[in-house]
């Protein structure tokens, strides 16, 4: 609550500067991390497939590594590893403070100066030298079998330019394309594969473009009961080919635009979501203006823009 802001600022500053790492505490927390990995990934066939797909999709970039780490890596981590990481990255020069809620900006600034202003940087923040992906010249395929999977599924990932790489309007066109392709029962692939052909029981598509480097357009298809995976994948390819050849329906684009804008506006009722939007933008080098201008940029995307990114990246 707003009357506890100063306490939280004090705790946050203390956490940034004075965290203590000892072998026993880290050993205990490592067990928590390993259990989290088991629950989220190792015990979930769909998550395991996604994890295997990532390093296959990326040739050179570190986005191919799971964020939580491979279990073989996690098991070898030590207190000194945690301390070294903390001292290198948990430093004021590498941080953004975002406060959302019933607060006064002047008071927030006063508290930020009081509690964070005296903190010393523990490391020099280096220039982010990134290894970008080479040109894609071949499709890659992962086939995985798991007796725990109740039914087959198809997952596909297209590597696309991230918001920092893309030409103006491209990232927003990909946002809208993902919604039009597979967000809900009125989307193109759902109507084509689930409603009309009845070859799939579920279709979903999402675009993740707000990373520092590459973005991703992902498609997931669950074949209908009794439908062969190869047949479902062939139907998916045919639907995408038809879309690229004949373009996308303008009425679908307008519905998808309204859906995307509405879901974004509703999400802003959450103070956490507000803080998250700005914090995640700062983390990848974006500004307040970039974040506030997203709605206007979505409104400017045309059907021709959608057709172009579909032909280019699908």
What does this structure look like?
The protein has helices at 5-18, 23-42, 45-57, 71-74, 79-89, 105-116, 170-182, 188-196, 229-246, 250-267, 271-283, 288-292, 294-300, 303-313; strands at 154-160, 200-208, 215-223. It has 314 residues and is mainly alpha-helical. Strands 1-3-2 form a 3-stranded antiparallel β-sheet, with helices on both faces. A hairpin with a 6-residue loop joins strand 2 (200-208) and strand 3. The longest helix has 20 residues, at 23-42. The mean pLDDT is 93.
Overall form: globular
- The whole-angstrom Rg is 23 Å
Ends: how far apart? Answer: 46 Å
Class based on secondary structure composition and strand pairing:
mainly alpha
The H-and-E topology, N to C, reads as: HHHHHHEHHEEHHHHHH
């Amino acid at each position: 609550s707003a009357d506890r802001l100063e306490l939280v600022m004090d705790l946050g500053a203390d956490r940034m500067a004075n965290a203590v790492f000892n072998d026993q505490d880290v050993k205990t927390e490592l067990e928590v991390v390993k259990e989290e990995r088991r629950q989220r990934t190792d015990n979930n066939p769909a998550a395991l497939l996604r994890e295997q797909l990532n390093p296959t999709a990326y040739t050179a970039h570190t986005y191919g590594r799971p964020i939580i780490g491979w279990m073989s890596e996690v098991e070898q981590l030590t207190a000194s590893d945690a301390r070294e990481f903390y001292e290198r990255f948990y430093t004021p020069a590498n941080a953004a403070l975002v406060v959302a809620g019933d607060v006064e900006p002047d008071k927030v600034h006063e508290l930020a100066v009081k509690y964070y202003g005296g903190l010393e940087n523990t490391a020099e923040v280096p220039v982010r030298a990134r290894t970008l992906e080479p040109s894609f010249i071949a499709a890659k395929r992962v086939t995985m079998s798991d007796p725990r999977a109740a039914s087959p599924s198809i997952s596909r990932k297209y590597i696309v330019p991230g918001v920092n790489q893309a030409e103006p309007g491209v990232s927003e066109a990909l946002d809208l394309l993902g919604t039009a392709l597979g967000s809900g029962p009125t989307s193109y692939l759902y109507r084509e594969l689930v409603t009309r052909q009845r070859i799939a029981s579920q279709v979903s598509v999402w675009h993740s473009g707000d990373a520092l480097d590459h973005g991703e357009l992902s498609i997931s298809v669950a074949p209908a009961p009794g439908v062969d995976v190869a047949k479902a994948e062939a139907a998916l390819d045919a639907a995408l080919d038809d879309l690229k050849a004949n373009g996308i329906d303008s009425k679908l684009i307008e519905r998808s635009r309204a859906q995307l804008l509405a879901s974004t506006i509703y999400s802003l009722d959450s103070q956490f979501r507000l803080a998250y939007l700005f914090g995640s933008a700062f983390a990848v080098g974006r500004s307040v203006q970039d974040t506030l201008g997203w709605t206007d940029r979505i409104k400017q995307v045309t059907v021709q823009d959608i057709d172009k990114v579909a032909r280019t990246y699908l």
